[in-house]
Amino acid sequence: MLSKIVNKIKSMAIKFDCFDFNGYKPCDRNFLNNLDFCKNCKDYRQIKRHILIIQTGAMGDVLRSTAILRRLKTSFTKIYWATKYPEILEDAKNEKFLDVIFDINDLRNVFVILSYTFDIVYNFDKDVFSCALCKQVNAKKKIGYVIDDNVVKQVPSYTTQYYRGISQKYARENKKSYLQEIFEMCGFVYNNEDYIISYPQNIKQNNVITIGIKVGTGKMWKNREMSVQKIVNLINDIKNKMTCDVVLLGSHEDEDKINSILYNFGSDSVMKKISSTYKEFVYNIASCDIIITPVTLCMHISLGLKKPTIILNNIFFPNEFDLFDVGYLINVDRPCFGCYNRFCNTVNCLDSIPNDKIIEILLKEVRKYEIYKT
Fold first, then answer.
1. Dihedral angle computed from the Cα positions of residues 357, 358, 364 and 368, in that order, rounded to the nearest 10 degrees
2. How far apart are CA 346 and CA 348, in angstroms?
C-alpha cells in the first residue's frame, strides 16, 4: 500500500522542494497555467538550503544586519528571519533578499519555527529570548548565540563580538565594527555591504537645505538624549550661522519634548515631523538633507539612505559603527565614555558636546549647497 502511494506521488511529479510549493493551495504558476500538479512546469526553482536568521533586539540592529543578506542570499537559498520588527525587513523581502518574515510578536510563529528544519541558523542577538529560541530550533548547524548552562554563550566558537560583552577593556580596544563582527561570525569578509532600505521618491519640496534633529531615544535609553535646552541652544546657533530649515524628528512619545522645544521658536522657524510608522519615519528622515542624531534607529536609517549624518555618542565605543563615508561621529569627552548605561543620574553627558563641533560639520556640508548667510 505504501509503495503505491509513493509511486502515485512520483507520477504526479510534485516538487516539494520548490520555492513556490506550500502544500495547502496551488501556487500561482499552477493556478494560472492549469498544470497537472508540477508536471511540465518551466518555473521550478529548487531550494537546496534553508537559512534562519534570528534578530529580535534593537530596531537599528535589525536594519543594519540586513547587510548580511547580500552575501547569504543565492538563487537556491530560502532565507527566513525571526524578528519583533517585521516592518523593517519588508524592503529586503520586496527586493528578493529575504523570503519569509516570522513576526514573533505573534507567539504562534514561534511554534511554526520550531516545527521547521533548517540547514543553518544564525543568531546575532544576545537577547535571552533569541538565545533560547536558537537553542531549541532544529538546525544542522548553529552559528551565533545560544543559552547553555543557563548563560549566553556563542557557537561554534567565540568571536570578537562575544568578548566585547565580557570585558570592558577588550571592548574599548576593539577595532572591528558591528558589521565586520557579524560577517566574521558567518565566515565572510566584510566589504562595506550596505543596509537594505528603499529610498522614498519625490520628497524634496524646496531648494532650502533641511536639517533634521532627532529628539528622543525611547523610554529605555534616556541616557542617549539631549536635553530640551541643549537642542534649543543648538538650533539658535545653527540659525545664526546658516540659512536653513530645521525639523524636529520623533515619534508620538517624543511629542511633549518636541513641543517644549518649539515653544522657544516661531511656528515657521522650526518645524516638527512626528512619525507613527517605520515607513513614515524613513520618509521624514529622507526629506531632510542633513541629520543630527544620537545613536538610535534614526542614525541607521540616515546612514542607510546615505544622508550626511552627525552622530552624538556617549555610551558606545566608536569603532562599533560603520559610517559609509557619510557619517560623522562626535564622542563625549568624559572618563565614563562607553558605559553602555541606559540611564544616568549623574549628568546628561550629551549636553557636554560643544555646539561648535556640530556647527563645524554642518558648515562643511552646507557649503555644498552654497546657501551661507551673507
1. -170
2. 7
Q: Which residue matches cell numbers 534562519?
A: 52
Q: How confident is the model over 149-166, as a mean pLDDT? A: 87
User: What mean pLDDT is reported for the chain?
Assistant: 87
User: CA–CA distance from 341 to each of 165, 202, 218, 237 (Å)?
Assistant: 13, 40, 14, 29
Q: What is the pLDDT of residues 331-371, one digit of tens each?
A: 887 666 655 566 666 667 788 899 999 999 999 998 877 64
The total of other beta-carbon atoms located within 10 Å of residue 127's CB is: 19
DSSP string covering 46-66, please? Answer: B--EEEEEE--S-HHHHHHHG
The domains located in the chain, with CATH, are: 49-185 (3.40.50), 210-369 (3.40.50.2000)
> Residue 235 to residues 129, 133, 200, 231, 317: CA-CA distances in angstroms?
41, 46, 27, 6, 27
pTM here is: 0.90
pLDDT value at residue 9: 58
